[in-house]
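Internal tracking record. Fields below are filled automatically when a chain is submitted to the structure queue. Please do not edit lines marked as system-generated. If the sequence contains nonstandard residues, flag them in the REMARKS field before resubmitting.
Queue: standard
Priority: normal
Entity type: single polypeptide chain
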Amino acid sequence: MAIPMEIVDWFRGVFADANRRLAEKMLNAPATPEPTFDLTFIEHLTNYAAPRKFKSDWAIRIDTHYLGGLRHFRSWEVADIGVFVFFTKGGRMVRRKVALLQSKRLFPTTGDVDHLEEYDYRVGMARIGARDADLASMMSQRKFSFTKASKYQSLTKESDQVEAIRGHMESYKIPIHYLFYNPPQLVTNVVLPLTEYSKLGEKDNYLGARVIPTEDLHKALAGKAKSYSPTLGDTRKIMSDDEYGWRLEYFMADLLLGCKGGFRFTNNDEVPIQSIFYRRSGPIAAAIAVTVEMPEDAELPE
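SYSTEM-GENERATED OUTPUT FOLLOWS
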């Protein structure tokens, strides 16, 4: 592999840490709305905005931009997160790649998840200060249970969003992947109010965030009813090489950075790139840009 393993390993570690933070959020705030997981993901990566130099004379930097909080593209997006990977050499761009991620959180089998409604977007920050005279006690017990029967309820087999994703891939040939936010274990129970906040170790996040190509998931749902929402159990056998999909860190480091995945393009002015990233009303909520600076004598794998 032409890219030094010290870079790939470091990059994998960055996203493994992000994966743990996302799983911790599921434990510490199980009712939180889906977009807050995107915000946590992006916020984690802001820690790596300064360039990092390696012994092999390669360098890497991660830039982020979060639009969040708006109603995009008729209230849904073709992809929530777009990831650029740029390889440069001596001040010249030598390769551009992009990957698109449509994120969905796992809903508990018991326990309600908060939703952001159109009213929340219209009122904005004033909404958080609105309190009724009679408030429910925070001491009221609420239980959240996650199992293989838990569903990705904001995803249905047939919907405007699914049709838009299919149409976008047919028009522009850019693959779109589902990024599934999951708890750390296949069976997870959380009771509120908490008595302490959870902190995961490196080996505690067995399940966590997983990535599955949209075409593979849509094909797996072919025999289901139009209104069917996939369960965690449905994702177990979709990928032949990984149960429940690729781990987030494997997809980002070994496939995308490692030049085995993603869509290569030659110019930022190309129509699909313009339509996704450079229109204020475009169908995306956040962007990540990974810039890798290579020595002059380095070569990338095809």
